[in-house]
Write a structure and sequence with these properties.
The chain is an alpha+beta fold. The protein has one domain: Haem-degrading domain (Beta-Lactamase), CATH 3.30.450.150. It is built from seven helices and six strands, in the order H-H-E-E-H-H-E-E-H-E-E-H-H. Helix 2 packs across helix 5 and helix 5 runs parallel beside helix 6. The chain is globular.
Length: 254
């Protein structure tokens, strides 16, 4: 009888996992496998950083974690601390983007520095540590990552977080990427969102009217107010070419 109950329990867990995956896809989000495979591919490209493995977290419009993935073979192949940072970035991009205006975490860099009009924003929505560090470690980065289904919170104000918009222009939530320099994080997040076809961005504060990273800081001052520190010439050049190489998509007018 005990053996039979164990079999039923295993089958129930498999069914629940399958249903969760289907539900995420039905709501407009890519599956865990789709996100991970796309991330692995993009990490192998030139992104202007150190070429490290990465974490990516997706949250829905309420800030609930939908998926957590990593690009390496094991959870220890990328900075362990970047798992929570990727979740922070996803939460931030979702929290401060709207149906008509997208703000990337990179756009918040200069304006949240001392003297900036949003200084202190990074302390406004703290991480829920009970969610961040709950559950068995062996589930981290899997379909059953302990953060999935919970609100993570947190605010991060450097590159790597982008809001997600579907082909109708609806904001679904956001994605956060972490594991390299902040500028490379932004580049990888941008490519990842593009690969997942969730970059129907309505409007942004960059010169190209999207939520791309802005490099306009001179002597500590951003000309636009939305600038980000430059990490490397390579990373900056890759981002500047995004309007040509990975342009945001436009919603087709009916």
């Amino acid at each position: 009888m005990k053996k039979l109950n164990s079999v039923y329990t295993i089958l129930a867990l498999i069914l629940l996992s399958t249903l969760f995956s289907i539900q995420s896809f039905a709501e407009g989000f890519p599956t865990h496998t789709e996100i991970r495979e796309a991330l692995k591919e993009i990490v192998g490209e030139k992104n202007g950083g150190f070429g490290l493995n990465m974490w990516a977290t997706v949250v829905d419009r309420d800030g609930v974690v939908e998926a957590v993935v990593f690009s390496g073979n094991d959870r220890g192949d990328q900075w362990p601390g970047s798992r929570i940072i990727s979740a922070q970035k996803a939460n931030t991009a979702n929290a401060f983007s709207l149906p008509g205006l997208a703000l990337s975490t990179a756009n918040l860099f200069a304006i949240t520095q001392p003297g900036g009009s949003l200084f202190g924003l990074q302390h406004s929505n703290p991480v829920n540590t009970e969610v961040a560090y709950r559950g068995p470690s062996e589930n981290i980065g899997t379909l059953n990552d302990p953060m999935v289904g919970y609100k993570i919170g947190g605010v991060n104000v450097f590159g790597g977080g982008l809001a997600l918009y579907d082909n109708s222009g609806k904001i679904l939530g956001a994605i956060g990427v972490s594991g390299d320099s902040s500028c490379a994080d932004h580049n990888i997040a941008w490519k990842l969102r593009h690969k997942l076809n969730l970059d129907y961005v309505p409007k942004g504060v960059s010169p190209t009217q999207d939520d791309n990273i802005v490099y306009d800081i001179t002597d500590g001052t951003s000309a636009s107010g939305w600038g980000h520190a430059e990490c490397s010439p390579d990373a900056a050049e890759i981002a500047r070419e995004f309007p040509k190489t990975h342009p945001v998509r436009s919603v087709e007018k009916k």
